[in-house]
Each structure stands twice: as structure tokens, then as C-alpha cells.
Amino acid sequence: MIDTHCHFFDEEFENDLDECIARCKEFNIEKIVLVGFSYDTNRKAQELAKKYDIFYPTAGVHPEECNSEYKAQFAELVEYIKKNKIYAIGECGLDYHWSTEFVEEQKELFRMQCELAIKLDLPVIVHSRDAAQDTFDIIKSFNGKLKGVMHCYSGSAEMAKEYVKLGMYISLGGPVTFKNAKEPKRVATEIDINRLLIETDSPFLAPDPYRGKRNESSYVRFVLAKIAELKNISVEEAERITTANANALFGLN
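The structure assignment produced for this chain is given below.
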């Protein structure tokens, strides 16, 4: 299995990171995409990846980090990427949940990161919260040239199908296991498994039976099991396909 989105550099793991990694290996999680989203976390992801071979680092600027100095933030990201090996641009995207103060800046910074991903032939990891239409419109504007993943997808199955038409993958996390999460289950059921990825977004969004507690990458197995159940296929088949998807998108082989 591959956890395609986690933040193991978070302070939640400062006391038991080695134990968490050991549990990953115990449950056959062979690779983890370690997702940066700011000046500091991009560097933390890189540092951990140099220490542990299970991690594959990314770098990006999260929309919640965006401010009036977004051009300087982007320039800093470009310089960082010149000096460090990464496997994706992001986490980036749009988020209007907490604030709409920098909406236009968010859009421009997202576009710039998408353009950079295309230029470097890297996938983009897309965060979208309370900004579904704007996120889709920007991705669509690249006319299928962009490759990437809709991280912890929470939109409709109908829009997920439109993203797939544009060449994007759909990644599902803990919410697909929640009892009343109807739409994630619809997405898992209706989207071709060849376009699905699994993730934890740890330390956030722990799946059942750990809902409400700290999430960790070893719990991605519960996401995989739920998708296999909804697809009416074996866990082994779901694991084989989603692992191949992740390897292909991020170039992990």
C-alpha cells in the first residue's frame, strides 16, 4: 500500500515517529508521500525523507499560507525546488473556509503552481475546500496538460468524473469509512478504480474505527478495505491497482 498524502513532520508525531513507521511496515505500507505546504514544512518533509527511505517528499504553498506576498512565496518555492528532489508540487489549491481575504491571490498562486508542475513534468496535489467551482475552473483551464490528484476529495461524484476526464486522479481518505459519508462512498463506487488513490492526510481525518483520534499512515488500510468493499473486489486487488496508480502518478518506482 501507498499512503499518498501525510504530514508525518507534524508535532503530533514528535514522540513516536519511529513507532509509527514500524507500524507502517508491519501493515505493508511500503511508501508514503510526505506532503509539504509551506516554507517550513517543505524543508521538514525533505529532512525526514533523507532520514527514512519510506518517505517521498513534495513541496508547495497551501492556500491558507497565501497572502499579499504570494509572488515572493512562489519565487521562494521555485528556488527551493531547484535545490531539492521532490515528487509533486503541492499541497496547493484553494480554501475559502476560514477566510476570503486573499481569494484572487489564492487563485493566482494556484495557477502559478500548476504552471510550474507542467513545466517540471510533476504532478500537482490539489487541496480544495469551499471552493469547488473555482478549483475546477482553474484545473480545466489547462486543457488536460496538468496531471495530479484531488487530495482527500470531498466533492460530488459528478464533478469527480469531470476531473477524471481532465486526467486527474481522485484520492479518498478516512471520510469514506464514516457511516454517514454518502458522497465519498458514491465517489468510491462510481469512479474507475484505475483513477483512485488512497491516503490518510495524517494526523487529520482518522478513519473508523479511530475517528476523532490522531491519524497515521498505517490506518490507510481501512480506507483501502472500504474501497474494496464498495467495489466488490478483494482487498488484494484494490491494493494492487491503487499502488500501481500511485507509482505511476508520482514516479515512485
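Interim note for the steering committee: The chain has one domain: 2-250. The chain has a mean pLDDT of 97.
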